[in-house]
Sequence to fold (123 residues):
Amino acid sequence: MTTFDAIDKLYNILSSQGLDVFKLVKPDGSEQEYVVINSLPISGEIIQRCLVNVNVHVKDIQVSGSTSVVNTSRLKVLANQFENILLKNIAQDAHIYLDGQGVEDDSALGTHYINFRLMCNLI
Fold:
């Protein structure tokens, strides 16, 4: 198995949740809410392990001129929605569990995002 197998498994789980889901990078033109899935290297063991990042982006709220604030209410809704989905999914040939979660700033895009760090054990 490869890191792309882990990314594909999570893509299949998340692509029906109402947000655009992208593998590895976000293409230009996605402006509001979207998900980006990427992975760190996979181990070479019998049970292969890799960390996969699922980043759920939410556009900041413009309050005046160039001033914006974090849309914490929407981030909270999506954090609960995606955490419930991610915690309930175990693929036939993979065990996926939440390793950590946090909120990060992407000021270049004018978004903040929820980072779900998932450990994938591929069998």
Q: What stands out?
A: The mean pLDDT is 84. The longest strand covers residues 94-106.
